[in-house]
Write a structure and sequence with these properties.
- The protein has a 5-stranded parallel sheet with strand order 2-7-1-8-9, sandwiched between helices. Strands 4-3-6-5 form a 4-stranded mixed sheet, sandwiched between helices.
- The chain contains 7 helices and 9 strands.
- The protein has a single domain, classed as P-loop containing nucleotide triphosphate hydrolases (Rossmann fold), CATH 3.40.50.
- It is globular, with a radius of gyration of 16 Å.
- Strand 5 and strand 6 form a beta hairpin.
- It is an alpha/beta fold.
- The structure holds adenosine-5'-diphosphate (ADP) and guanosine-5'-monophosphate.
Length: 198
């Protein structure tokens, strides 16, 4: 859900994709290769995966804590991406990054991506990361070994719906050969930061 307009000042780069497309992998690469970017750490009510750290990968909250933050207006946007699994972009996070002069990178679901683009308009670049096929997406999710069979099903069931959002994005990257997709992502971000208007 998009929640009121936000004052425009810096640049924002939004990566969205069905789960397993390689969005996190590409975001990490871009952050390591383009200066003055900072990641907007979202809040979520899903439990941490092994290796994920609170405040680094996400702010991990209970469903009750998440709903309290919705009422307080703490989110720029939030979505119930999977049943009872909430994810949201924290206003405080975006402001903290922009106030120190960095550009903000978002890793959000397709609906969140479209909402953020609506809110920030030409200050934002929205990038859709596409898997070569649904079969490859399933292979990657299985290979990542982070999901239970139930969670994997939920993600695959939603993926076909998420793929229909492609035309709503500014740029599309097909993540087939990883090195190519990484270079493309860096190029797209650099071009946006250097040439398009704030
Ligand atoms: P997302 O953040 O979109 O859910 P991840 O970045 O976690 O996706 O990628 C899903 C899995 O696929 C990870 O195990 C990752 O290492 C792997 N992966 C990402 N891109 C590629 C690629 N181009 N070729 C093969 N495997 C990939
Ligand atoms: P995961 O559980 O795999 O980390 O994330 C599931 C989905 O939620 C991914 O598509 C991810 O991009 C999305 N997501 C993460 N943070 C946010 C957020 O703040 N807002 C929205 N709308 N989606 C998010």
């Amino acid at each position: 859900m998009a929640e009121n307009k936000v004052q425009q000042k810096g640049k924002l780069i939004i990566f969205s994709a069905p789960s397993g497309s390689g969005k996190t992998t590409l975001v990490h690469y871009v952050m390591a290769h383009v200066p003055h970017l900072a990641f907007s750490v979202s809040a979520t009510s899903r439990p941490p995966r092994p290796g994920e750290k609170d405040g680094v990968d996400y702010y991990f909250l209970s469903v009750e804590e998440f709903k309290k933050k919705i009422k307080e207006g703490a989110f720029v946007e939030w979505e119930e991406v999977y049943e009872n699994q909430f994810y949201g972009t924290l206003r405080s996070e975006v402001e903290r990054i922009r106030n120190r002069g960095d550009s903000v990178v978002f890793d959000v679901d397709v609906k969140g991506g479209v909402h953020l683009k609506e809110i920030y308009g030409n200050n934002a670049l929205s990038v859709f990361v596409k898997p070569p096929s649904l079969a490859v997406l399933e292979q990657r999710l299985r290979h990542r070994s982070t999901e239970t069979e139930e969670s994997l099903r939920k993600r695959l069931d939603r993926a076909a719906f998420e793929l229909t959002f492609e035309p709503k994005f500014d740029k599309v990257i097909v993540n087939d050969v990883l090195e190519k997709a990484q270079e493309q992502a860096v190029q797209i971000v650099r071009n946006f930061l250097e040439t398009e208007r704030v």
